[in-house]
């Protein structure tokens, strides 16, 4: 690790003073997306119509593969930290699982919808995608699109305060190898071939392993992750399959540090899509997808001096099935319609428990030496979890009109209706006006409503940590945004003012019950607002810099950062070398936790980056660094005794890529 750290410091320092030896030609420019391409990048998740960043009727951030590589990150969730209004940190429930912050809201319930190639990853037991899929390697990613703000008008529940859509590579033939600090190694292979004009095949496989960093609590944070994806395109038919498995043992689980903590999760996805019609006016598709999610976890609940520790966790399985038909149609007057209907079934199939204490006769968890299991056992038919085996049925329909009112003004009008059987029904409208003042200035006025349906853990959980509340209602938010977009041949900038009305928010609260520590409640209605700034300046083909800044006008809901920023600079030293440096800045946090402990974290900055060397036309080496100087810091989590979860320290790695 010391060798890698010294190498990173030395390489970046030397690279920063190397004189420019040659200007890269268009054919040799292997690193940078041209600024014209950046301005014209196509995004369609925000409107179901093809738009650019200036014309899209949502607040968007988009990262290409080259931009992601320059950040030096390894997990897709870490890219959130370079998005205005969004953050990703560790939490207290499996501490290496990312927790999402969006627009001043830090609640552990899935307020950001995560999708892979337009297919949702969030599921119905915990709500947030990262519990079941905590690691998505950036090596398999081609692009990440972020909607900052409501997305339920197109995507339903969980598209509440934001959407992250990960687009994976399907036309790449490459092999990538990695070694790094803390015992890390891994490999990724991507393959693509065409058998004919009608038939093509792609496949990706990625494996990552690391021993993890040592922490004062006597634990490490190891990782083992496998990602598999394959697809076949035959004429109008597309078949897709995906599998991932992640193990995050030992570090932090259920608010306790222990070498006995265990966590493994996996997801299996299969999907089929058929294009019925595709011409200049009409496109009509139908699709079916099935996803199975598994989690097997156990974490420290209580440590004792005279008897073995008490550990507890879920052994759960959920499934998601979805049928969808969607169309897009362009009228003679250039109006465009995007519409669809959808049926989804989300089911919790298994609701077992993993525990170190269990009585076979009463079928209860009893903390007594007589019922110690000599380790952690799995009980699949656990009576107290029986109510978790619940099925959500959702019928949905959505539609949106894009109306080019004039050369300067375009209107978007749309809505989605979701009927969640036996829970509630939600109508999510959306309105936007995009006005082009001149080629440099565009203003947008946007309004949208979103919701999040409570999940089975919130409704029916029953363990020593939380007890559910079957009376919960869906959360809802009404968002108004005023956006200014500016672009020239060298500069792109955005300023966003947003205002949220938040209703029926589900929050975790202490309970008076002796059987559990916390419960869930629709505990408050409130408002919040803020400003998000971002800009990219490309002074030449060799140098670019991107900055973001977020300022909330009210204190965040549950303590998190009220102000934060990022800065990313990339410099092409020659046609073979590129150096990128980034800075993440977070404002101070000071709060009293529910246990009465006082948490204080001063403002801090994290430095990272990458150094890339193009060996030849087909191969490159890259040195990546996160938290390069090993900054020690904590993030706040309300369920920790002292409110503190340790942040990640330095992570250095060397990557080799060969294209074939």
Descriptive terms for the model:
6 helices
Structure description:
The chain is mainly beta and 660 residues long. The chain is built from 6 helices and 37 strands. A hairpin with a 4-residue loop joins β20 (391-404) and β21. The radius of gyration is 25 Å and the shape is globular. Residues 1-33 have low confidence and may be disordered.
Low-confidence runs (pLDDT<50, min 5 residues)? 1-33
Shape: globular
Strand content: over 45%
Number of strands: 37
What is the mean pLDDT?
89
As a whole number of angstroms, the C-alpha radius of gyration is 25 Å
Question: Main beta sheet, described?
Answer: 22 strands, antiparallel, barrel
The N- and C-terminal alpha carbons lie at a distance of: 31 Å
How would you summarize the topology of this molecule?
Blueprint (H helix, E strand, L loop, with lengths): L1 H16 L17 H5 L20 E5 H7 L14 E5 L7 E5 L9 E5 L2 E2 L8 H4 L8 E8 L3 H4 L6 E7 L5 E7 L3 E11 L4 E12 L12 E12 L2 E11 L4 E2 L2 E2 L4 E17 L3 E21 L7 E21 L5 E22 L14 E8 L11 E14 L4 E12 L3 E13 L4 E12 L3 H5 L5 E2 L7 E13 L3 E20 L7 E21 L4 E10 L10 E10 L4 E10 L2 E4 L5 E4 L2 E13 L2 E8 L7 E3 L7 E3 L4 E9 L1
Parallel strand pairs: 4-7, 24-27
Antiparallel strand pairs: 1-6, 2-3, 4-5, 6-7, 8-9, 8-37, 9-10, 10-11, 11-12, 12-15, 13-14, 15-16, 16-17, 17-18, 18-19, 18-20, 20-21, 21-22, 22-23, 23-25, 25-26, 26-27, 27-28, 28-29, 29-30, 30-33, 31-32, 33-34, 34-37, 35-36
């Amino acid at each position: 690790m010391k060798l890698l750290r010294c190498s990173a410091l030395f390489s970046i320092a030397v690279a920063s003073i190397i004189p420019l030896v040659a200007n890269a030609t268009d054919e040799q420019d292997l690193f940078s997306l041209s600024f014209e391409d950046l301005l014209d990048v196509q995004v369609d998740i925000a409107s179901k119509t093809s738009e650019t960043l200036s014309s899209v009727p949502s607040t968007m951030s988009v990262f290409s593969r080259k931009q992601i590589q320059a950040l030096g990150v390894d997990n897709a969730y870490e890219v959130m930290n370079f998005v205005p209004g969004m953050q990703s940190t560790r939490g207290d429930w499996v501490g290496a699982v990312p927790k999402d912050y969006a627009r001043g809201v830090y609640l552990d319930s899935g307020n950001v919808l995560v999708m892979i190639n337009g297919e949702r990853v969030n599921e119905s037991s915990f709500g947030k995608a990262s519990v079941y899929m905590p690691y998505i390697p950036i090596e398999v990613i081609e692009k990440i699109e972020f909607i900052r703000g409501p997305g339920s008008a197109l995507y339903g529940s969980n598209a509440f305060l934001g959407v992250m859509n990960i687009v994976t590579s399907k036309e790449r033939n490459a092999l990538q190898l990695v070694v790094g600090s803390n015992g890390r190694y891994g490999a990724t292979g991507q393959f693509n071939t065409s058998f004919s004009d009608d038939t093509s095949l792609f496949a990706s496989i990625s494996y990552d392993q690391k021993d993890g960093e040592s922490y004062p609590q006597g634990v490490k944070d190891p990782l083992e992750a496998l990602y598999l994806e394959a697809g076949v395109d035959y004429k109008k038919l597309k078949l897709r399959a995906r599998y991932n498995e992640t193990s995050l043992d030992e570090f932090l689980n259920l608010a306790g540090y222990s070498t006995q903590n265990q966590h493994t999760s996996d997801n299996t996805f299969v999907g089929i899509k058929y294009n019925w019609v595709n011409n200049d006016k009409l496109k009509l598709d139908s699709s079916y997808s099935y996803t199975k999610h598994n989690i097997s976890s156990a974490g420290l609940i209580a440590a004792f001096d005279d008897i073995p520790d008490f550990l507890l966790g879920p052994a759960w399985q959920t499934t998601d099935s979805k049928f969808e038909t969607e169309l897009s149609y362009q009228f003679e007057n250039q109006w465009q319609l995007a519409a669809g209907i959808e049926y989804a079934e989300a089911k919790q199939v298994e609701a077992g428990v993993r525990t170190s204490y269990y009585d076979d006769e009463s079928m209860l968890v009893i903390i007594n030496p007589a019922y110690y299991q000599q380790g952690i056992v799995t009980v699949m038919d656990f009576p107290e979890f029986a109510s978790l085996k619940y099925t959500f049925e959702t019928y949905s329909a959505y539609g949106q009109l894009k109306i080019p009112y004039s050369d300067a003004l375009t209107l978007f009008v749309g809505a989605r209706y979701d009927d969640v059987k036996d829970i509630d029904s939600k109508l999510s409208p959306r309105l936007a006006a995009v006005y082009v003042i001149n080629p440099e200035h565009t203003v947008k006025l946007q309004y949208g409503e979103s919701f999040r349906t409570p999940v089975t853990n919130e409704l029916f959980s029953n363990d020593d940590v939380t007890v559910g509340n079957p009376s919960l209602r869906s959360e809802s938010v009404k968002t108004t945004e005023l956006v200014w977009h500016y672009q020239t041949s060298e500069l792109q900038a955005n300023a966003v003012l947003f205002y949220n009305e938040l209703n029926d928010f589900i929050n975790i609260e202490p309970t008076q019950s002796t059987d559990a520590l916390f419960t869930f409640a629709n505990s408050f209605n409130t408002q919040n607002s803020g400003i998000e700034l971002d800009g990219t300046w490309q002074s030449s083909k060799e140098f670019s810099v991107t900055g973001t800044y977020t300022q909330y006008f009210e204190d965040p809901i549950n303590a998190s950062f009220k102000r934060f920023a990022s800065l990313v600079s990339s410099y092409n030293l020659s046609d073979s070398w590129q150096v990128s440096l980034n800075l993440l800045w977070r404002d101070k946090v000071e709060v009293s936790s529910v246990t009465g402990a006082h948490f204080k974290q001063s403002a801090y900055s994290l430095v990272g980056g990458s150094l890339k060397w193009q060996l030849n036309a087909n191969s490159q080496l890259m040195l990546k660094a996160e938290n390069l100087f090993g900054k020690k810091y904590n993030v706040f989590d309300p369920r920790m005794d002292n409110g503190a979860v340790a942040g990640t320290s330095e992570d250095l790695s060397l990557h080799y890529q060969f294209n074939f």
